Amino acid sequence: MIPIYRKITHPSFLSYSSSIEAPPEFHTPWHYHPEFELILILNSKGTRFMGDNISNFDNVELVLIGPNLPHFWKKEGPIEKDAIAYVIHFSEDFLGNTIFDLPEGMRIKKLLNNARFGISFTENKNSKIVNKIRHLIESKNFKRILTLLTILDLLSKKRNYKTLSSEGFVDLFNKKNSQKINSTIEYAMNNFKEKINLDEIASSVSMSKSSFCRFFKKSTGKTYFDFLREVRIGYACKLILENNLSITQIAYECGYGNISNFNRQFKDTVNMVPKEYKRKLLRSNVSL
């Protein structure tokens, strides 16, 4: 699937947009836009697609997304009656070009820089940040600016967060000459469960196998199969968290022909074997 460009609009008398989606717009396709997006989803669960990261979300979902990072949320089954999303879009220069270059703004500047990978924050429904976001929707005049700055400041101090997409994906997607790269990403996203033939991929973008390998490595800093491994293992982590399949079934579901290769590549990516990863989740009482 190729991400589509989505135009974000807001009234000319406002510096950024804020809205409530009740229920959340889970039907929105994989898309990107040049604005930052801060989204809070409450009382729902499903799957989050952020760049080349595939993860589950549950109950309280708070994510900051940088410019032009493809993303969407997918909901299996009916949407919960009380599900709601608070969505904020703002441009990098909505307060001018230099405010975050001030000494007092450097921490927020670092936060926004890291947002290019997508950042997931661990929160509860009654946290200070969640309440600030809910109240921001009702804020007016200059209080809207102060509330958003306060939220960004609070997020910049958080230690319990996780960056989502890989640096290779972010770098390659933002390249101007990315048509060939996007085509190979689409192929990987659509076929990662199957055996991938490098000759076929190279041929699809009118390149020889050796030329394609050099081109992809130069463009992304990693080999195509390194990228494919990250997509497969990200999906494997999602399936382990769902706890519906055995480790062997998950290996085959993610495109691995044998369990030993799956275990090795999983450990190379996650720094632990799948069974250890699953035990860690169970000890943490993480479930869907």
From TrEMBL:
Assigned keywords, A-Z: DNA-binding, Transcription, Transcription regulation
Domain HTH araC/xylS-type: 182-280
Database matches in InterPro entries: Homeodomain-like_sf, HTH_AraC, RmlC-like_jellyroll, RmlC_Cupin_sf, Tscrpt_reg_AraC-type_HTH
Keyword Transcription regulation: yes
Highest taxon, organism lineage: Bacteria
GO molecular function: DNA-binding transcription factor activity; sequence-specific DNA binding
SMART domains: HTH_ARAC
Record keyword Transcription present: yes
Taxonomic lineage: Bacteria, Pseudomonadati, Bacteroidota, Flavobacteriia, Flavobacteriales
SUPFAM superfamilies named among the record's database cross-references: Homeodomain-like (SSF46689), RmlC-like cupins (SSF51182)
Protein name: AraC-type DNA-binding protein
